[in-house]
Amino acid sequence: MKWTLVTGGSKRLGAEICLALAAQGQSILVHYRNSKHDAESVVTKCRQMGVDAEMIQGDFSSMESTASFIQDCQKQYPDIKNLINNVGNYLVKSSAQTTAQEWCELFQTNLNTPFALCQAFLPSLQASKGSIINIGVTGINNIRADIKRSAYSATKMGLLMLTKSLAKELAPAHVRVNMVSPGYLGNAVDLPEAVLPMQRPASMAEVVRVIIFLLNEQNGYLTGQNIEVGGGIGL
Question: Domain range holding 99?
């Protein structure tokens, strides 16, 4: 069984990704941390579409707990074909307001964990010529400073560089690595509709359709790309 692992797949964008990929016929592995009930609901809905679906618990708050998750996942579900690094924490603070602990926690979840997962699952990704999709944020293509989300933006910029480095490194093995960077979604805690060029947030479905496009093997020459779904913000 070849699985698509979606981290943070029990709620919000992660759940939408799981359901959309299940509708495409993929076998879905739903990662969750605390939201077991939500994960069970996503798994049930995926199975109702006629695909295999399972869930797996994991804590990404430290490299040790991330390593424990990796060990459990490789034991139970060794064949990961696609990895969607969706899990991530959000912080609306300037650099002056951000504590050292908040900085380290954000980098652990948003950058260290995707690195560890990409590295750990490389053998199965290479064997299946699969894909990695990292979830970024609109604005990093143009290296736009964001003083209200300083630490968060730094983690996503690091993730973009990891995406490009892995894409170049893994291209000979036919493993594609791309990034999808949403702008403000409808559930954003700091939605500034007045400054959005399209005067509305993105829907989760609009973001998910880009992920489906990148995973489609007919688009197998696309790698190292960051596609922003930002409705023109940052132009």
Answer: 3-229
Residue for token pair 């023109």? 232
CA 103 to CA 101: how far, in whole Å? 5
Q: How far apart are CA 151 and CA 109, in angstroms?
A: 12
Please report which residue ranges of the chain form alpha helices under DSSP H: 12-23, 36-48, 63-76, 100-107, 113-120, 122-128, 150-170, 204-215
10 contact partners, CB below 8 Å, separation of at least 6: 30, 31, 32, 35, 36, 38, 39, 42, 55
What is the residue-averaged pLDDT of the chain? 93
Domain assignment present for 235: no
* Total of domains in the chain: 1
What residues contact residue 172 under an 8 Å CB cut-off, 6+ apart?
A: none
Is this prediction's pTM over 0.90? yes
Question: Tens digits of per-residue pLDDT, 195-221?
Answer: 778 888 889 999 999 999 999 999 999
User: Which residues on neighbouring strands pair with residue 229, listed in sequence order?
Assistant: 182
Supply the CATH number for residue 191's domain.
3.40.50.720
Would you say 199 and 193 are in contact if contact means Cβ atoms under 8 Å apart? yes
Phi-psi region at 20: left, alpha or beta (left = phi > 0; alpha = psi -120 to 50):
alpha
Torsion of CA 55, 219, 198, 7, to 10 degrees: 20
